[in-house]
């Protein structure tokens, strides 16, 4: 009998319904006819859980849900292999809109989301701690809704930390600043988020490498930076690595960074082989419509080029996933 894979618990404080509208070309102020429309369950942690489940791993997605959009979000997750745990809230789950053009350019309109009461925020945190009792990874992801303090994910790190549990955080802005201070095992900023975190532009891979080293020096176990078309950079106890794929035809970048994180976790959450899987998963997500989660048949590991010694002179465009 094959041993069970580690249990992954994702926490998404501000989930969404992701509505993707495909257009021939976006004209500001014009009238458009959609060529295709799809609705996916969304939110960074939800996307991570979906990608992990598609890769054959046990994934629990914890999320607050409210009103009709929340009911539909839960219904869309029901036929997947993700175990969904919901915390009822009074407000309505947000609906995000993506306008996707054939050349891969995506325009996103993200709603702010509901306002959670102190009791609802506490119920979410308490449920996360309970679910982590048997988990191998806790993954806290995405933006925070109104009513939730910027240090919510940082407090979650401290509250849930225990021997045998590793914690990954993927967020931005003030919540990321607070989370870094809590020293999780892994953070996954994108290029722009890392630049904001360290307070300076990062124009080259060398600049990103220095910034990632700074985070490691602050107690972070591993730093995985997604770089859009530039692939991803990893700095952890095993070394420093850069990986990317040759240019691909992009259909949608929505959820690509989440698939990158899922690929890294699915492959062990450490070292160069996990980085290769991360980049392969991110590229696979870019080739799919909307925020579809890539499955095993979509992953092209052999396309990934790994550099054990990153080329610090490589210029970066600022694209992020």
UniProtKB/TrEMBL annotation:
Keyword set, alphabetical order: ATP-binding, Kinase, Nucleotide-binding, Transferase
Domain spans labelled Carbohydrate kinase PfkB: 25-294
Pfam families in alphabetical order: PfkB (PF00294)
Family of the protein in this entry: Belongs to the carbohydrate kinase PfkB family.
Enzyme class: transferase
Protein name: 1-phosphofructokinase
Chain's role: Catalyzes the ATP-dependent phosphorylation of fructose-l-phosphate to fructose-l,6-bisphosphate.
Stored CDD domains: FruK_PfkB_like
EC number: 2.7.1.56
Catalysed transformations (reactions): beta-D-fructose 1-phosphate + ATP = beta-D-fructose 1,6-bisphosphate + ADP + H(+)
Keyword hit for Glycosyltransferase: no
Domain of life of the source: Bacteria
Gene label: pfkB
């Amino acid at each position: 009998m094959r041993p069970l894979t580690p249990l992954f618990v994702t926490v998404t404080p501000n989930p969404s319904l992701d509505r993707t509208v495909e257009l021939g070309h976006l004209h500001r102020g014009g009238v458009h006819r959609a060529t295709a429309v799809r609705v996916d369950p969304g939110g960074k942690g939800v996307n991570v859980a979906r990608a992990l489940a598609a890769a054959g791993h046990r994934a629990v997605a914890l999320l607050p849900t409210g009103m009709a959009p929340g009911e539909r979000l839960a219904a869309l997750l029901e036929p997947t292999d993700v175990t969904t745990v919901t915390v009822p809230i009074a407000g309505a789950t947000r609906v995000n809109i993506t306008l996707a053009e054939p050349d891969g350019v995506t325009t996103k309109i993200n709603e702010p989301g509901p306002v959670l009461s102190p009791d609802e925020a506490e119920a979410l945190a308490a449920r996360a701690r309970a679910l982590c009792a048997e988990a191998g990874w806790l993954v806290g992801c995405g933006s925070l809704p109104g009513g939730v303090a910027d240090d919510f994910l940082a407090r979650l790190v401290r509250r849930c930390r225990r021997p045998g549990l590793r914690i990954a955080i993927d967020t931005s802005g003030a919540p990321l600043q607070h989370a870094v201070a809590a020293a999780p095992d892994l953070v996954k900023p994108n290029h722009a988020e890392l630049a904001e975190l360290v307070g300076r532009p990062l124009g080259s891979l060398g600049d990103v490498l220095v910034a990632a080293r700074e985070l490691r020096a602050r107690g972070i176990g591993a730093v995985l930076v997604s770089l859009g078309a530039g692939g991803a950079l990893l700095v952890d106890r095993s070394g420093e690595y850069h990986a990317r794929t040759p240019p691909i035809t992009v259909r949608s970048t929505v959820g690509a960074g989440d698939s990158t994180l899922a690929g890294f976790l699915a492959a062990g959450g450490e070292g160069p082989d996990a980085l290769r899987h991360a980049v392969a998963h991110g590229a696979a997500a870019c080739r799919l419509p909307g925020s579809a989660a890539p499955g095993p048949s979509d992953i092209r590991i052999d396309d990934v080029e790994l550099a054990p010694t990153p080329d610090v002179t490589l210029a970066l465009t600022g694209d992020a996933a």
